[in-house]
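pasting for ref. prot 1 ->
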Amino acid sequence: MKHHATDAHTLAAAYTLGALDDGEREAFDAHLRACEACGQEAAEFEATAARLASAVSQPPPASAKAQVMAAIDGVRQLPPHIPAPVAAPALRGIVRRRALPLALAAGVTAAVLGGVAVWQAQHGQDLRQQARQAQQQLDAVSAVLTAPDARTVHGKAANGALTTVVASDRQNKAVFTAANLPAPGAGKTYQLWLDHDGTMRPAGLIDHDGTVVLTGNPADAGAVGLTLEPAGGSPQPTTDPLLLMTLPA
């Protein structure tokens, strides 16, 4: 089947998240050698996916390794599972059938469940609630990231935090991700803002590395701001912005 040239441009996210078969990856590798724009987009998706996964992951308890090593001798190894061969579909089929939410769910949910499994016996009820909240967050984030008009911009705050904003006019939502965000300190929190023609409107709180969907209406906002505020947030910024990043056009 002959493919339109524009089809390949939509596969950058699935490519960076390992959602393509061998044949599809080879075809996209060839496309990347001739398309600088897709190379840049693939690099941005890779950085964003890594930040999302690290934002929701949970470290295992210190006792986990000792427990695993003590029990490993009694675990019988299973024979390898060999899946039936499946013919690689055409690129156009991949665009229609294989949406980015599946790849994001595989990467981000794996990070969530890796920590959940370790603690489940002791904190079952709390973990189920956390899992539901994590799934709701994942659904909201995925809706923005997979929107056909999703646009991405990266920045760096004055305190060294690495930031990413993905915005979608169709969803009328924007997602903010922070990495290497220093602890805000006792009685403090980081607050996000949407800049509407010089008027800063509250857009949510974030106090550690992670990903949040901005509250408010980003459609007519020009930038996203980040300030350090008293715990609970403020109606207006009380400190100079650590970041004022123009929303992607």
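and prot 2 ->
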Amino acid sequence: MTRLLSLAVSVSRFRFWIYTGGTYVVGYALGMGSWEAFFLPAYTVYLVYFFFPANLFIYGVNDWWDRETDRLNPKKGGKEHLLRDRERRDLFGLLAAVSALSLLLLLVQTPPEMVVFSTFLFLAYFYSAPPLRFKDVPVLDFSSNMLYIMPGVFGYLLAAGSLPPLALLAAGYFHIAAMHLFSAVPDIAADRAAGVRTTAVVLGERRSLLLCLLFWSVFAALVIVLAGFHPLSFAVLLFPAVPLALLTVRTLKTASVYWYLPYLNTGLGGLAFAAVTLSKVV
């Protein structure tokens, strides 16, 4: 049991739990009518699910199907877990358990919740798995990363009973598209050597960073407008500032800056959560 738990935590990439769990929490806060909605049992159930099991599913499937390319990836074995052949049976069992849990949750959801939840599972699986394997298809690779926004959409739907506004979904898309493209830049050499044709491989580092700058600029503009030009909303400009700095300061390296993005996402996501929750309390 200890071995399985250790593998589950390693594979699920703890530093990235916030990308699904945090998105869910912010989406829920945006959709709730009152802060008392945090005390509903359903909120807690999905809070736990999107922080741990969801990430185990995303990255477990990724590690299962990326066996060959991971051996060439410098991040594996250091910052991220490198799956060993002897661990594949245990990982299969863990993925089966998460799949069973996901199916049980589906059975008690409303039809709209089932659609959103199923979309999350579909994108999470086929991002890495054949025959679709979105990560190998330029444009579809960063577009399918909408899977990280789906927990937020689900949280909003769970709290409000309706889908979030289109402008909010667009903001989420541009942010997550930039996040994916930016994270793929350090992997360009390894992906090219493995024959993986991502958008970053096709564009190269500089043009990828320029596209990240464009995506994050649109994201920042949407957030600022949606927030009614609230002074705190201008902190979102830190996102386009990252690729802009890399494009203008030659001593900065994308591979090094990449590992600081979880802190930026956590900090600004926490700020958004606090601001939205406080507004509901007031």
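The mean pLDDT is 90.
The radius of gyration is 19 Å.
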